[in-house]
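Collaborator request, handled under Task 6.
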Amino acid sequence: MTEMYEHPIEEVHRLLETVDAALQKIERAPTKSLQVAQVPELSEAILELLGWTNTAYIENTLNINPSLLNKFVKMRGVVSKNVARAVADRVRSNLRSMDQGFDAPVPPQKAKSRSVNKSTAVKKPSAAFAGEQWIAIKETSQTKMKIGAVASILDSIIEQIKHSNLPSSEQPLTVLERQQLIAILETTLAVLKSPLAEKGLLKKAKSALEQAAIKSVEKGTQEGLGQLMGAAGSRLHDLVAWLFT
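Structure tokens returned to the collaborator:
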């Protein structure tokens, strides 16, 4: 069974607030069912508890049915309001038990050293993305958590864009815009999985996601995807500040 990551008390309180925000969205939903992507806060809380392990049918200590949990891990699919509410309540109960049983912060683990030689060094992305500042990513647990958060959401956004079955007239983005956004996000994912990070690319991805989210709102379609794009843009903003400050 997969173990939960240990979280400081401040993080537990933040996650409780995140789940409460998700519950409010669920209650306000006008229909008896909703897209999981409409409550990205709940998916983010679940993924953070599981250490941002974006794995289908993961064994978990939340006691949530694996096939149901998979929808929230992948941020795709439809569930009833009652089911979404039950999942949120289960996550909230787990967080409250962590809050009550809190004793002291867990000492940080030492980051394992990793050498990168010339043969394994990751190449910079295409010249289409102007480099602004490259840095080596420090292997700390908090950095891994933040990168995992961004990577998980970007992966879900890419999949939803690629597999959308909406007619062209209802798509918030044109075919060319979708292709360009996918290219930027896939390049960003590749860089985030490497030992290096590039500031200009991350900022470009953030800007592209924010623009796509705005178009989704203006079009009035794929609102759940638009919310995910907005959440990803916010996460990228935080990640840039974390890595390059």
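The cover message to the collaborator said: "The mean pLDDT is 80. The longest strand covers residues 33-35. Please let us know whether this matches your experimental observations."
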